[in-house]
Design a protein that fits this description.
Blueprint: E1 3-4, H1 19-28, E2 33-39, H2 55-68, E3 74-82, H3 90-93, E4 99-103, H4 126-143, E5 148-149, H5 166-179, E6 183-187, H6 202-210, E7 215-218, H7 231-240, E8 245-250, E9 253-258
Helix pairs in contact: 4-5, 5-6
This protein binds zinc ion (2 copies).
Length: 259
């Protein structure tokens, strides 16, 4: 089975291609299970996401293509939710979807993965930023709101890497992810970013194996060409760590499928 659970739509204002084009392309690329997980609305950083009044349209449009293409592909409905203290919203957390991806794009409101704010790295201690990121990740896991951890080591995006062993920095968060029964996506977007590396790095993959945490697959597509991006490489990477199955979610119910 070819699975790809993290894909965006133009509703977030920084993706192109309409929903139907995405689906047709996913079919062309022989994807079996394809999930939309556009950026959920939030009263912060509104420019890069749909607003609350668009949730209905988003969900309706995805369910429409789900039905229309049911003989060719399985479409799933989700959201990518920013875990940002004080901005979580019940309308998103209780949405009637297949899954929620929890992601950290902000450290204390600093959009650390946005090239616009890259200058801030010069003012910071990189080891401390990494620790802060993984503390936030631990809190996110503890909240138990999410099924999937989005790009688990996004903090490496610009290749500002810590001196300290990444395994030591990440371990407590990984333990919490295990406790909350989440799965971790292998996200190929990192290969398109300055870091040129899959999320998660090999060090974090080792921890996932150690704690027996399931994985799933994502291309994090923001345009048609991103769909299925480097997926053979990513599946090979997963297999090299001993993984044979990946997770999908239907109405928050986890099912493991072979890949
Ligand atoms: Zn995005
Ligand atoms: Zn993201």
């Amino acid at each position: 089975m070819i699975v790809d659970l993290h894909n965006h739509t133009p509703l977030c204002n920084h993706a192109t291609g309409d929903i139907e084009e995405f689906v047709k392309n996913a079919i062309k690329k022989k994807i079996d299970i394809f999930g939309f997980s556009d950026h959920a609305p939030m009263n912060f950083d509104e420019k890069y996401r749909m607003n609350f009044s668009q949730m209905g349209k988003y969900e309706k449009d995805v369910l429409h293509v789900k039905k229309k293409y049911i003989d060719k592909i399985e479409i799933l409905l989700g959201y990518e939710v920013d875990y940002l203290d004080g901005y979580l919203d019940e309308r998103v957390l209780n949405a009637n979807v297949d899954y929620l991806i929890g992601s950290i794009h902000f450290l204390n409101r600093w959009g650390f993965d946005n090239p616009e704010f890259i200058g801030e790295y010069q003012n910071r201690d990189i080891d401390k930023i990494w620790e802060e990121y993984f503390r936030a990740l631990k809190e996110m896991a503890k909240s138990q709101f999410f099924e999937i951890v989005g790009h688990i080591d996004l903090i490496k995006v610009f290749r500002f890497l810590p001196k300290k062993d990444i395994r030591l920095i990440a371990k407590n968060s990984i333990k919490e992810i295990k406790k909350s029964n989440m799965v971790v996506e292998l996200n190929s977007a990192g290969l398109r970013k300055p870091v040129k590396e899959i999320y998660p790095s090999p060090q974090i993959m080792e921890l996932l194996v150690e704690f027996d945490i399931p994985i799933t697959f994502s291309s994090d597509a923001h345009k048609i060409d991103d769909i299925g991006y480097k997926r053979d490489e990513v599946m090979k990477y997963a297999k090299s760590f001993g993984y044979k199955k990946c997770a999908v979610f239907r109405k928050k119910e986890r099912v493991m499928v072979n890949f």
